Amino acid sequence: MELIHRPRRLRGNAALRKMVRETRMDKSSLVYPMFVAEGSNLKEEIHSMPGQYRYSVDRMEEKLIELYDAGVSSVMIFGIPSEKDEKGSGAYASDGIVQKAFRKAGEACPGMYLIGDVCMCEYTSHGHCGVLKGQEVDNDKTLELLAQTALSQVQAGAHMVAPSDMMDGRVAAIRRILDEYGYVDTPILSYAVKFASSFYGPFRDAADSAPAFGDRKSYQMDYHNRREAWKEAMLDVEEGADIIMVKPAMTYGDLIREIKDGTHIPVASYSVSGEYAMVKAAAQAGFVDESSIMCEMAVSAYRAGTDLYISYFAKELAECIERGIIG
Ligand code: PBG
Fold first, then answer.
1. CA–CA separation, 45 vs 52, rounded Å?
2. Mutate to test the pocket of ligand 1, among 200, 220, 312 (most ligand atoms within 8 A of CB)
3. How far does Cα 213 stand from its chain's mean position?
4. Which end of the chain has the least Cβ crowding within 10 Å, N or C?
């Protein structure tokens, strides 16, 4: 058989396959999302996310060190307050749970890069991502509180803030307040392209943040839309976002690629709780191999163009990179 092109030539040997790999991953681009709750000596497993826990502030250290030792040098911290109210006061209280967590994390693991998720839904009694006017989230009133939340996180030691609320104008509002207080060098990672997704179900279980009525469709995006994703990304770039995120990751690779190609800033993607829960459940049932599915999902996000990858599997991915399985 006279075949000029034999693509298999480059697949015949493990060293060669690795040499010609098109997608490279580095542990330094992994971010681990971590839940911190009030209380003491708490490490409580999240029912729908086996292997993930809610830590009390005094138990954070062991997890931070474990991650750091595995090569994961960045965490995104979510606070779970013991009390919630209409205005989500716990989100911007100087002694709020997430503020305490930042202070502790800075001491316990000084090399760790700390990112704050800026949103109200874990802190409001109604579970929506902002303050209400009737049954609707009041965009402009919420901006002030989000800005306060971001500022309080940075004052407590967050190195970067990541607004996830999907209010219009929040990147500009946060940039303004950070600059006003002298934090001109603190970057904003905007959850710019965040869809109203059923993949967040287990997170809401973990953070006790499901909306008490209605849904988030009046602020998070409709997943039929591609051009609107572009609009959201562009607006946030104009407002001063330093990094933009596409969320969820697994089913939105088309948009990761599009936004990567069309912007000049780093792109992040978040492999969310439902992605994790599905892998765990299927693996526990014996239907798929957990580690290889996890690797394939992560590599697909990098192949799509993600620069940062936020994943509950961050530590396990770092180990696979270390062992040369991926990356
Ligand atoms: C807060 C927030 C959510 C997630 C990240 N930040 C929940 C939501 O929007 O309902 C989801 C993360 C995950 O599912 O892992 N607004």
1. 6
2. 200
3. 24
4. N
**pLDDT for the residue numbered 158:** 98
pTM metric for this prediction: 0.97
- Bond into 248 cis (ω within 30): yes
Take atom 14 of ligand 1 and give the residue whose Cα is closest: 200
Ligand 1 binding pocket includes 189 (Cβ within 6 Å): no
Helix 290-304, helix 273-284: angle, nearest 10: 150
Domain spans, the chain:
23-322
Nearest CA to ligand 1 atom 6: 164
pLDDT of residue 53: 98
Q: Which residue has the tokens 């999907």?
A: 166
Residue 48: CB within 6 Å of ligand 1? no
Asked whether 119 lines ligand 1 (CB < 6 A), one says: yes
Q: Per residue in 152-207, pLDDT tens?
A: 999 999 999 999 999 999 999 999 999 999 999 999 999 999 999 999 999 998 99
Q: What is the CATH number of domain 23-322?
A: 3.20.20.70
CB 164 less than 6 A from any atom of ligand 1:
yes
Q: How far is CA 167 from CA 54, 146, 171, 301, in A?
A: 27, 9, 9, 26
Q: Using CA positions, which residue lies closest to atom 2 of ligand 1?
A: 164
**Could you tell me the two tokens for 300?**
């697909």
Q: What is the mean pLDDT of residues 216-221?
A: 96
Measured in angstroms, how far is the CA atom of residue 231 from the centroid of ligand 1? 21
